[in-house]
Give the backbone structure.
Amino acid sequence: MSPPKPRHGSPLLLLPIALIIIALAVLFAWIGGWFGNKNVTPQTMVNTAEASGTQQPGVRRAHAKGICIVGTFAPTPAAAQLSTARVFSQPSTPALGRFSSPGNDPHSPDNKAAVRGMALQLKTDDGQEWRMAMNSFPFFAASTPEAFQALNAARLPDPATGKPDPAKMDAVLAAHPEIKKFMAWSKSAPTPDSLANTRFNGVNAFRLTNAAGATRAVRWSMRPHTPFVAADPEQLKTADRDFLAADLDRRLAAGPLKWDMVMQFAEPGDPIEDPSRAWPDTRPETIAGTLTLVRAEPQVAGPCLDLNFDPLILPKGIAGTDDPVLHARSSVYSVSFNRREREISSGNVHTGSVR
């Protein structure tokens, strides 16, 4: 005997619509930080970034110091076999991007930054965009947004002493051992003497889908053509505050600078959703294209100033994974962008050179 069908006008017919509405409400509530773990919402993560220094109005909450960069991206023939993304089939795509230093101080001295960032926007002739945000570290500091938030909160000065509380940091390291591994890397890794010879890594995994429908998980990196030279620690101590920008200008005056985009492919068992764990160097790799930079300019009036390099703005043929850090980055960038845009629109803008 089959179950009775809902009669016309029955409330059961409205159940699917109600479920969709509830799901959307839950999504918006989480994004808005209205429920869940109050310590780890996009808003609280941005609040912590603001509290890490003297926040300047109208500038980014993290990686505030930056330089706009302009160039092109040209794919290799192999790239079109990896993904249907238009950027891999058209001969050349304009590239607009930004080099950056960590922290919320747009005037931070270059010699204090152990980590550097490269963000890019590739916009193809069909209007699709690929935005990406990479860093010079080979793996992320934490495996989850909660661990990253705990790390940043532990770094804040204690109101009683004006300094971070060592006990709080010890507790964070005990709870999240991957952070200890990252700190060990940051203390021992040599610092490149130039942005031109810095490798930038997209530590989150993405999925490429080709014309046959085959999908592979990848991590990409930008590897410089300029040979690596480690900065002299003694020279760094007395280096000019903006020596990286001056060096970049000097090198670009002599000719374009290039990086190869290298795709590294995961194998079964590799951590797809944990950016704190690098994949073995033995994993297969393919050069997908070459980035050529021809110009740099101060961000204060440059074309990258108002761009949010959200890593989940992706073209067809490239998709994000379920990596929670990747999704948190997208949400946090959005909150940061909205806050500074509101400040700019109200005239509350940091003045002075923000290179």
Observations:
- The first helix runs from residue 15 to 31.
- The CA atoms of residues 89 and 293 lie 20 Å apart.
- The longest strand covers residues 285-298.
